[in-house]
Amino acid sequence: MRVAILALIAALTFPFSVAAGNTITVEHPMGSTRVPVKPERVVVTGIGALDVLHAFGITPVAVTKEYLPDYLAQYRDDKYASSGTLFEPDFEGIFSLKPDLIIIGPRSSEQFDELSKIAPTLVFAPDEQAGASYWQATQQLWRTLGRVFAIEDRVEAKIAALNAEFNAIAEHNRAEQNNALLVMSSGKNLTTFSTYSRFSALFRDFGFVNAAEVHSQSRHGELVSFEYIKQANPQHLFIIDRDKVVNKGRSTTHQQFDNALVKATAAYKNQAMTYLNTGAWYITASGVTATELMIADVKQSLSK
Fold this sequence. Notes:
The structure is a single chain. This protein is of the alpha/beta class and 304 residues long. It folds into two domains: 2-125, Rossmann fold (3-Layer(aba) Sandwich), CATH 3.40.50.1980; 177-302, Rossmann fold (3-Layer(aba) Sandwich). 42% of the residues lie in helices and 17% in strands. The protein contains 14 helices and 13 strands. Strands 8, 9, 10, 11, 12 and 13 form a six-stranded mixed sheet that branches. Strands 3-6-7 form a three-stranded parallel sheet. A two-stranded antiparallel sheet has the order 1-2.
């Protein structure tokens, strides 16, 4: 019943709101969408897209308030309406805000069709079928929003600045043939990821060689052990502490990694064991500040 009501009302009102101003067609993982240029009432259901809007001074009318990193804490304020959770948008609440544009993250992409009945909707997520690396996909996402909000020059300036950072780090790592292992800790489980995984940035953009041969291409990674980490013996060990996000900051990851097997690795001996910013790498992927924090994390490891 809810979907039918939204579809009926949207069918009556949606075409007129789009036709009122200039529009462009943008491509995204769910296809192509005709969206208004410089929309004023924007609803966001993903943290990465919110990060980009925030960085360029664009204020949405509704946001997802769960898992917000500290640098986006202002959006917890009641003056910003809630758009629902990362996975479940608040359809009625979003409809009542009469948005000009809805931007959704990858975790709510399955709701694209229903949200599109309310207002033009685009998915802020890399197209995994295209095979682009993190930074390649991120640039495209920023350029899409640059076109939508008519801020192309500002977006290109930011891309150029960060591109220089990526290139410098990658050139250094390739020249030194630095290898690395990325491990996610979640409860008592350890997973590692392939060169072409959701964390491809470490290898494809920052230029590290993967210290281990990872067979699984799953987004959830491949289950490993501390013995595995010792055998891989990475020069740089990067750790994502997922418990900080899913367990509201309660984590014993540091204590778990304080063991003889980890201490036997080159990464530990050279003080190149780095706990990554979980919000940036795991939650706010493709955000502007998130990408800057990712660069900072890698620089920290290389400075040891």
